[in-house]
Design brief:
The protein is mostly helical and 81 residues long. The protein contains two helices and no strands. The termini are far apart.
């Protein structure tokens, strides 16, 4: 009888360890997904800033008369994103 109790305890411990390992793996998957989303959001924001900087630089370029003109309105600029 002692062998069976020991075997049952060992099996229960293995099940518990497997369950905890699965929980940790799922937590890590959620963290990775969150970080990937944040990374993508930051890349999009970076691109938006880059476009805004390019538009701002172009809008400050003088035309042939030496006059500075605004190249795009804000609504036109947003459609380029």
């Amino acid at each position: 009888m002692g062998f069976f109790r020991t075997e049952l305890k060992r099996m229960e411990l293995n099940r518990k360890e497997t369950s905890e390992a699965n929980d940790v793996a799922e937590d890590l998957k959620r963290i990775v997904a969150t970080l990937e989303k944040e990374n993508n959001d930051l890349k999009m924001e970076k691109n938006e800033h880059k476009v805004a900087l390019e538009v701002a630089g172009k809008s400050l370029s003088p035309n042939s008369n030496g006059v500075h003109e605004v190249g795009l309105s804000f609504s036109q600029w947003r459609t380029t994103l």
